């Protein structure tokens, strides 16, 4: 059994290939494309236009925190944890290392209290922290430690 003849055939006319519909007997016209959407238009790329004069340079804000006075970290204390507060202390690189170690230890203790001992231990620690004598002792210890960290000598 032979295949039926194809509806279309391709012929060369004037050095161009033309598709001819054998049922209609004339060349196939290209299907009109879908209308172009506004977002699909090509945009022209233009270089920025030079201005008449250069814009004034922006003022850089004064450095704060770690970059305020070189390599030292500037830290402002508060009265609730520092007997000499509020004051701004300068903490050098060695002091920054001590602060990182203390923060890591406090994080481990907090995780231990929550995971192993549970929330009742946090309840007891809350009462201890609200006791005025305990708070005074912790504040005095924090003041001594912050004064030792102070780059200027306290």
Automatic annotation (TrEMBL):
The keyword Transmembrane applies. Keywords: Membrane, Transmembrane, Transmembrane helix. Residues 27-71 are annotated as: Disordered. Residues 38-69 have a biased composition (Basic and acidic residues). The chain crosses the membrane at residues 99-130. This is Uncharacterized protein. It comes from Sphingomonas leidyi.
């Amino acid at each position: 059994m032979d295949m039926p003849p194809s509806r279309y055939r391709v012929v060369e006319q004037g050095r161009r290939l033309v598709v001819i519909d054998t049922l209609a007997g004339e060349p196939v016209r290209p299907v009109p494309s879908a209308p172009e959407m506004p977002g699909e238009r090509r945009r022209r790329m233009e270089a920025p236009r030079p201005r008449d004069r250069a814009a004034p340079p922006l003022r850089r804000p004064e450095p704060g925190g770690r970059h305020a006075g070189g390599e030292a970290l500037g830290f402002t204390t508060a009265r609730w944890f520092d007997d000499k507060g509020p004051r701004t202390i300068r903490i050098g690189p060695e002091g920054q290392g001590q602060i990182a170690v203390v923060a890591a230890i406090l994080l481990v203790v907090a995780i231990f209290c929550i995971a192993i001992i549970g929330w009742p231990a946090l309840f007891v620690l809350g009462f201890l922290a609200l006791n005025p004598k305990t708070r005074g002792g912790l504040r005095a210890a924090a003041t001594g430690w912050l004064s030792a960290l102070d780059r200027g000598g306290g």
